[in-house]
Amino acid sequence: MCRLFSLTSTSCISPMKAIEALDMMKEGHDGSGVGLFLSSLEGPFSRYKGLPILSGIFTRDGFKRMEEYMAELGFTPRFQLTLDTTGNPPPGTPRREIYLIQVFDPPEDFKSLEQVLQERKLTGIRLHLRHMGQEKEDMVVFSFWPDVITIKEVGDPLETGQYLGLDREELCARQILAQGRQNTNYGINLYACHPFFIQGVSSMTNGENTAFVPIKEYLSTQGVVGYEGYQSDSEVFTHILHFTLKEMGLGIEAYKHIITPLQDSDLEAHPDREFLQRLKQACRRLIIDGPNCVIGCLPDKTMFMVQDRKKLRPGIVGGRPGLYAFSSEACGLDAVIPDRDKSLDFQPMHLDTAIVSPECKEVRICRQTQPLPLQH
Prior knowledge:
The protein has 376 residues and is of the alpha+beta class. The chain has helices at residues 15-24, 60-73, 108-111, 115-136, 157-163, 212-220, 235-247, 255-259, 264-267, 273-282, 330-336, and strands spanning 3-13, 33-41, 52-58, 76-82, 98-105, 139-146, 148-154, 173-180, 196-198, 201-207, 292-297, 303-307, 316-320, 323-327, 352-356, 364-367.
């Protein structure tokens, strides 16, 4: 089991707030790792909103190889932040050489590309660096995208966050996803640590997906740059979400209809019956199986939570205008937003998608029995 916590706010928040919420839920995770996704960045990164940011862990040799490769591509470093560790690593946390967050200015020929081609290019660069690092074990690359920072490490979330100095003012964001657990089922691998990311889409999951193999095989045959790796059975949730938004042009309201479609008897009474029947047939190999709670963030900074068909993992949403949180447990909400109206907290059930837009005005509930907005 692991625990999830995310924040979406109209003002800047330290990632340590999310880690403190994970610490409140410590009995629900094994303290073996922490993963963070940060977006809508403030501080020095706000000056580089449109420029891609590279997040990863490097040896000194790996850092030099990365620099040489990026220079060959014509990408110029603009701003660099390294996480300066303090003292000895916490128990179980390896000693690393460089935790790197670096902004790059792309070459002019990149800037002239259409957005979809720019996105594919950035994804291809991230994957190439990942493959370079896996070959010599000298770099681990989590994301390469504008306005996104991803941090992952092995160890107790609170102790690791303190060790990495994550309370520094440069790491301030308005959307934060935090997960407390390394993937210990198959051995430690930072690429198996949530949250997962592709082209502005990020998600994390508490649970297991026993339909992982057929879903992975289907996604891998779609010819989409980035549908590879799969060190965790939960990474397919991120890629299905990306497939929903980017490849099919649908909104977040359709995501549940793909991963947990309605039963045929329930579809008969749905106002979008014909469309959903075709969608279910076309995407039948993307249907998940197993207990899951999924929290994610979209490219437009919308945050959401969904549950599996049987609602077998905990999940709750609450907050107040300007600040909302999605949490595995209510005590996580209490740790960060104690002054909210708790009577408005909502626990999504198997038909629900709980959605908070980046304006953070309210929690919107979309049920699978409602008509779909198909303007996408």
